[in-house]
Specification:
The complex is a heterodimer of chains A (about 325) and B (about 325). With about 325 residues, chain A is an alpha/beta fold. Chain A has a single domain, classed as Rossmann fold, CATH 3.40.50. Chain A contains eleven helices and twelve strands. In chain A, the strands form two sheets. In chain A, strands 6-7-8-3-9-10-12-11 form an eight-stranded mixed beta sheet, with helices on both faces. In chain A, strands 2-1-4-5 form a four-stranded antiparallel beta sheet. Chain A is globular and about 65 Å long. The relative contact order of chain A is 0.14. By secondary structure, chain B is α/β, with parallel strands linked by helices. Chain B has two domains: about 220 residues, 3-Layer(aba) Sandwich (Rossmann fold); about 100 residues, no CATH class. Helices cover about 30% and strands about 25% of the residues of chain B. Chain B contains eleven helices and twelve strands. Chain B is globular and about 65 Å long. Chain B starts with 5 loop residues before the first strand and ends with a helix. The chains are: A alpha/beta (about 325), B alpha/beta (about 325). Chains A and B meet through helix 6, helix 7, helix 9 and helix 10 of A and helix 6, helix 7, helix 8, helix 9 and helix 10 of B.
Chain lengths: ~325, ~325
């Protein structure tokens, strides 16, 4: 078996509910938002799963639940055969070395009062790693395309793209097997973004870790991912190999999403037909019955309201949850 | 070509900061033809927003502005506050990125549109209220009657942006400046808002200046394009010519840094944008440019005709022969 076919992480039936407390008059009401609802997927060794969807789709909550940064309501997160949801705090601490995260905002994720070098070394200190941290930091800076003397500087001396590289160096410090990248290039200008995306590819080739790449930019995900999961209102509506999902989308939402992305080519933009979805994403407090996309879907029938579609394998190889797939 | 409805000449904006003079806009010319959509593209700090905030008279007092901004031949720079106020919101209107901060949270959206109408037109409240509902319908808000009586927090992000657009077009502006109007929105909602803007341009002949960092948005809706870098226009032309044969290394770099199907490796532009407290001498892009020669840093290059577009690159010829070879 090739190493790339090995599963590193299996998420099964993940659910995350958030409670909303609101005071309405004299009565306290409790409402529940199901941010993630019965989500399952696998991440393979050395591969990238792209997680796409609009705001409120639950993609960030999935990323954080995987790392146990937030506690899932139910479901399993199996990392190298062990279910993280059943682990004690001490056991988790050990596993967390293998799993890291890079956040969207390179300005908020670094302590302005710490040198970049100490920020990068912090995970080593926290995990009690012995040895010369100074050399390790220099090695990590080199790995992300920064100079070793950058270690002495403070975050404000760096541009957005450089700060994101610092964040990546910190995530790499403990040689993780999995990195969750949560909108890691959204805050960067396109000319800078390209360099950071290349860095992710290079690091994966060199070090062999897996990524969960969370983004709303479908073009970037298409470039970097091996598999793609499309989320809508807390559910995965389509999941499969990148080429299948992008070339032959099966779920109407995937189709609409892809057709809404503006492409940098006036001829293509002005000649292609576009599916214009009506309205906005409904509130996750009170999602539609049956298929959650049906209120905006041009194919919706009575069946879609009555019965929730399950993920089923389609002819191009991907799975989609739709009663009327393409 | 018909006369420009909005004409900007040699616009310069300098901010006096604690760290020194920040030269945000360094001599920009803009021509907006009646009824066209002009896309203004550039990265953060390129001066694209500041240029048009200056044109609207919306910059703080710490900004020093010089040059000329003419709307239908009437000069706005140096005009009295009263004169500028009579134009702003009437013939020249603006839509911003964040619709929530553009709306007053404690007033019904209908009333806010009425206020907008009555501050520029002599119209009784009953008629203005009717007009407000019509405007909400034009921008595609369902049940505009009921929605006019609601408050901004009752609207979603996309619907709020529609309300803001309704306010902006309330007085039939000649030019609508839209500053990153879809950046905060999801892609399916972005598509709806772009369609609303196009519909307004087609129905009312409103000229639109669309400021964005997204070349895909430009490709979808713009007729002509200005590419800005380091406070200057570096390239200008029709949307087709800019995408077909970009004639400035920055535009080319921007286009090739985007991911597209079948490409193995992205091509970033090396380096990062200059510090505008101390912009480089000569061409602002020279420090990041692979084609840069000594002459590029000698003096600030201006836009000159090059084939069917305008480029400020003194090596545009070499760049284009490079494309061909």
């Amino acid at each position: 078996m090739k190493s790339q076919d090995q599963v590193l992480l299996s998420v099964r039936n993940l659910v995350k509910n958030f409670e909303l407390r609101a005071n309405s008059g004299l009565r306290k009401t409790k409402r529940i938002v199901q941010a993630v609802s019965d989500v399952s997927f696998d991440v393979h060794v050395g591969q990238t799963l792209g997680l796409v969807g609009e705001s409120g789709s639950g993609k960030t909550t999935v990323g954080r639940s995987v790392l146990q940064l937030i506690q899932p309501t139910s479901g399993e997160v199996i990392f190298e055969g062990q279910d993280l949801t059943k682990m004690s705090f001490e056991q988790l601490r050990e596993v967390r070395r293998q799993m890291q995260i890079v956040f969207q905002d390179p300005f908020a994720s670094l302590d302005p009062k710490m040198t970049v070098g100490s920020s990068i070394a912090e995970p080593l200190v926290v995990q009690g790693v012995q040895g010369n941290h100074h050399d390790k930091v220099a090695e990590l800076l080199d790995l992300v395309g920064l100079a070793s003397d950058h270690a002495k500087r403070f975050p404000h001396e760096f541009s957005g793209g450089q700060r994101q590289r610092v964040g990546i160096a910190r995530a790499l410090a403990l040689d993780p097997k999995l990195i969750v990248l949560d909108e890691p290039v959204s805050a960067l200008d396109v000319s800078i973004q390209a360099g950071v995306v290349n860095l992710f590819s290079d690091l994966q080739k060199r070090l062999g870790m897996s990524y969960i790449f969370i983004a709303h930019d479908l073009s970037v995900v298409r470039h970097i991912a091996d598999q793609v999961a499309v989320m809508y209102l807390g559910k995965i509506v389509e999941i499969g190999d990148k080429d299948a999902v992008y070339r032959r989308p099966s779920h109407p939402y995937t189709k609409a999403l892809l057709s809404a992305v503006p492409l940098p080519d006036p001829k293509v933009e002005r000649s292609r037909s576009r599916i214009m979805l009506e309205g906005d994403v409904p509130s996750p407090v009170n999602p539609p019955t049956g298929c959650r996309f049906r209120t905006r879907c041009w194919k919706a029938t009575d069946l879609c309201a009555a019965e929730e579609p399950q993920l089923e394998i389609r002819s191009s190889g991907q799975q989609s949850a739709c009663h009327h797939p393409e | 070509m018909s006369e420009s409805v909005l004409q900007i000449r040699d616009l310069r904006v300098t901010f006096n900061t604690q760290l020194g003079e920040l030269r945000a806009v360094r001599g920009v010319d803009v021509d907006v033809a009646p009824g066209e959509i002009l896309g203004v593209v550039g990265e953060s700090g390129s001066g694209k927003s500041v240029s048009f905030l200056a044109a609207m008279g919306l910059l703080p007092k710490s900004a020093t502005i010089s040059g000329s901004v003419k709307l239908d031949g009437v000069e706005l720079i140096g005009a009295s506050r009263k004169a500028v106020r009579s134009v702003r919101g009437k013939s020249l209107a603006m839509v911003f990125q964040d619709p929530l901060s553009a709306l007053n949270p404690v007033h019904r959206v209908g009333d806010q549109i009425v206020e907008m109408i009555q501050s520029h037109q002599d119209m009784n409240t009953h008629d203005a209220e009717k007009k407000a509902v019509e405007l909400l319908e034009i921008v595609g808000i369902p049940q505009p009657d009921e929605r006019a009586r609601q408050y901004p927090h009752e609207f979603s992000g996309g619907m709020r942006q529609r309300v803001v657009i309704a306010m902006a077009i309330a007085n039939n502006p000649k030019v609508l400046i839209a500053d990153e109007p879809t950046t905060a929105l999801d892609v399916t909602v972005q598509a709806q808002i772009l369609e609303v803007i196009q519909r307004i341009q087609q129905t009312f002949g409103t000229a639109v200046v669309l400021i964005t960092h997204d070349l895909g948005v430009i490709a979808r809706v713009a007729d002509s394009v200005n590419v800005m870098y380091a406070g200057r226009n570096v390239e200008s032309g029709s949307v087709q010519s800019i995408f077909d044969h970009p004639s400035h290394p920055y535009t080319r770099g921007l286009l090739s840094s985007l991911p597209h199907e079948g490409i193995e490796r992205l091509q970033p532009i090396a380096g990062f944008p200059p510090n505008m407290l101390a912009p480089p001498p000569g061409c602002g892009f020279a420090p990041r440019c692979q084609l840069a020669i000594e002459a590029c840093s000698a003096e600030l290059p201006s836009l000159v005709p090059f084939g069917d577009l305008l480029s400020s690159c003194i090596r545009a010829d070499d760049l284009r022969s490079g494309i061909r070879s």
